[in-house]
Amino acid sequence: MPDLGAATVAGAPATGSPVLELDDITMAFGTNQVLKGVTVALTAGRVTALLGANGAGKSTLIKVLSGVYPDHGGTVSIAGSPVVMESPLAAARHGIQTVHQRIDENIVPGLTVAENLVFEEIIRGEIPPVRSLRRLLPRARDIAATLDLGWPDSVLTKDVFELGIADSQLLLLARALSQRPKVLVLDEPTSTLSASEVERLFALVRRLRSEGVAVLYVTHRLSEVRELADEVVVLRDGRISNRQEAPFEMSAVVRAMLSESVLEQSHDLVEQRGEVVAIGLRGVQLLPRCAAIDLDLRYGEVTGIVGLIGAGKSELARGIFGVDHLRSGSMTFEGRPYRPRHSKDAVRRGVYLVPEDRAAEAMLPGWSLAWTSTLPFLGSVSRAKVLSAAKENKVGRDVVDGFGVVATGPSQPVDALSGGNQQKVVVGRWMRAAPRVLLLDEPFRGVDIGARGDISHQAHELAAAGACVVVLTSDVEEARGVADRIVVLAEGEVHLDNYTSEIGDDAIITSMSEVA
Predict the structure, then answer these.
(1) How many H-runs (helices) and E-runs (strands) does the chain carry?
(2) Helix 133-146 with 165-177: angle, nearest 10 deg
(3) Are residues 113 and 30 in the same domain?
(4) At 111, phi and psi to the nearest 5?
(5) pLDDT of res. 395
(6) Are 247 and 171 part of one and the same domain?
(7) 141 and 1, same structural domain?
(8) Separation between Cα atoms, residue 292 and residue 223, nearest integer Å
(9) Which range marks the domain in which residue 392 is found?
(10) Residues in a beta bridge with 395
(11) Taking the mean position of all CA atoms in its chain, how far away is CA 311?
(12) Residue 18 neighbours by CB under 8 Å, 6+ apart
């Protein structure tokens, strides 16, 4: 990893002056109003942290100031003068560079590393659009040297998709810095980096700040906010819900990210307390830079694993289900060693996972409700390896009837259903199979209040029948509405573990904001 702190950027404005101002920015997609009058000023020589839960409007705001969404309401000003940011190229001309979280949206497939490094200069016409690596290499070497990457020509001439994720992130960062930006937007920049790479990235951000660059730093990790930011802006539901100058009151930041009703929500379910341990974890490290945890998940209760995005919730679920291997430590299942090599091992034990991204990981486009309901259990609806349509349809009807799915019937394509009904199908197919351990990762995301109630009721019924149910969520309101017991994860570590009736919202929110 290069010495990122040695990078320099010239041409930045004087420290303390506004570089970019967003005034009363609105943005809608059809009838969905995503941004509702956002006003933010980015100042030279300052790091502004932008936080918000999923769906708060962060990505949309970034794309507005990056020129991806020019058809917005409100005004964008550069150095006090209104401008029209009609494209990413226009944003770059105004000195705005963005390193987006999704690397695949910024890397150009089919090109070499060198061509990707000089790509912006090619499309601006500064370098002739010729496929001659010999002519491109000198400039590519210069850009790589911006971060002292030390890549030899053998790396520069390889296909860009041969780079690892971290090196791809560094490529994008070097390309951005080579343009001498006045404003640098970093969207979740540490998500792919190792601990040492993160520390060196921090050194770079501090160096850029000292040189007068305005940095917009988008993250879910509160420790990064505390370490780097001069101010924090929190978005919730398309509006600014909190704005602070350092030093920050982190509990207020977390509160601002959550819905208003969290403070009024009461836990009105009959609390259940289990005694027998289903899954035991000892010395398990969830994230690269966190301490190991011990945790018991018990039969006969619903455990709510609560934490912000990036807290390690999905890593925990995927490790238990065998999708990913644990970094360290050990697990037991009913007191015996348990280390699933893949998800099939977990399913054989009755350990099931409803993943966070149901569209990408739990459904297939065009498949019927019946097919989707039986996908993990094809053996139960087949004879001599031949699928039975009658059995598939029966399972589909059982899911529709048992979970209140609004559908025309088991033959309806599942992707034609509403988000809430899709979630009921995905949850229902696992619940009807009598799980011993059921992991629900963000089960209420994108579903309406009625579907939330149905899923919560089914989860409690399952726990009452003796199953171990684990709901992983970033929403305190959702957790209190379904869980008997609350476990708070903050950056991979357990900061609270207690029964819901014995703790209040303040304790949960404070624990969510406890970072090193």
Answers:
(1) 19, 22
(2) 90
(3) no
(4) -110, 160
(5) 83
(6) no
(7) no
(8) 18
(9) 264-512
(10) none
(11) 10
(12) 41, 42, 43, 44, 79, 80
* Domain termination site, one of 162, 179, 196: 179
Do 63 and 138 lie in one domain? The reply is no
Cβ-contact 283, 328 below 8 angstroms: yes
The answer on pLDDT for 284 being more than 90 is yes
Q: Which two tokens stand for residue 77?
A: 């000003």
Which runs of consecutive H residues, i.e. helices, occur in 246-354?
250-257, 313-321, 343-348
The model's pLDDT over 131-146, given as tens digits with 9 standing for 90+, comes to 677 888 999 999 998 8
CB-CB contact of 278 with 349 (8 Å): no
Does residue 76 lie in a domain region?
yes
Task: Please check whether residues 25 and 142 belong to one and the same domain.
Answer: no
- The CATH code of the domain that includes 42 is 3.40.50.300
240 in any annotated domain: yes
Q: Is 393 helix (H, G, I), strand (E, B) or coil?
A: helix
- In this structure, what are the phi and psi dihedrals at residue 182, rounded to the nearest 5 degrees? -90, -30
Q: What span, in angstroms and rounded, lies between the C-alpha atoms of 470 and 379? A: 26
Over residues 339-366, the pLDDT tens digits come to 999 998 999 999 999 887 776 677 787 8
Distance CA 305, CA 474 (A): 8
- State the alpha helices, DSSP H only, in 432-488: 449-464, 476-482
Q: Do 294 and 429 fall into the same domain?
A: yes
CA–chain centroid gap for 114, Å, is 30
Measured in Å, how far apart are the chain's first and last C-alpha atoms?
24
With CA atoms as reference, report the closest residue to 509 among 232, 262, 220.
262
User: pTM of the entire structure?
Assistant: 0.63
- Cα distance between residue 427 and residue 424, in whole Å: 5
For 259-414, list the strands marked E by DSSP: 277-284, 293-298, 301-306, 330-333, 336-337, 351-354, 382-383, 386-387
Which phi and psi (to 5°) does residue 415 adopt?
A: -75, 0
pLDDT tens per residue across span 50-67: 998 766 889 899 999 999
Say yes or no: 226 and 281 in one domain.
Answer: no
Do 408 and 301 fall within a single domain?
A: yes
32: Cβ contacts below 8 Å, ≥ 6 apart: none
What's the mean per-residue pLDDT of the chain? 85
C-alpha 395/C-alpha 370 separation (Å) is 7
Token pair belonging to 58: 């962060």
